[in-house]
Amino acid sequence: MWRSRVSVVVRVVAVSLLAVLSGCGCNLVGCGPALRVHLAVLPAGAFKVELIVNGSIEATRECSIDDRCQQDVFLETSAMSFSVRVVTDTGTRVTNFTGIRYKKSRPNGTGCDPECQLANVTAQIP
């Protein structure tokens, strides 16, 4: 009798835990910035990457010697046409992009929110 009750309690706890964990699975991962700007070459010194949409700076990422960035810089936008301006010690270069397509994904699985989007572009440096 005692073993039967323990077995039932263990089963109830296991099923409850499984239900809680599977419910949490749909919100474990969120979305990050929607645009990955790959720099054709990583600048040697400090640099700045600006996202320009309709003539206005929408996002900026500054990278210094102390705060080094990688060759991929992530910015938030959903624009399909924009420019990326890279500013270094040696100059400035603007790369224009149009018709950008964002790839949709669901990092927590099919049927789970959120639905994320990501586009990849490559910007030239001065």
Give an overview in words:
The protein is of the alpha+beta class. Helix content is 18%, strand content 39%. It contains 1 helix and 8 strands, in the order H-E-E-E-E-E-E-E-E. It has one helix spanning 2-24, and strands at 35-39, 47-53, 56-63, 72-75, 82-88, 91-97, 103-105, 116-123. The chain has a 4-stranded mixed sheet, with no helix packed on it. Strands 3-2-5-6 form a 4-stranded antiparallel sheet, with no helix packed on it. The longest helix is centred in the N-terminal third of the chain and has 23 residues, at 2-24. The chain is globular, with a radius of gyration of 23 Å. The chain starts with a helix and ends with a strand. Mean pLDDT is 83; it is low at 1-10 and 12-21.
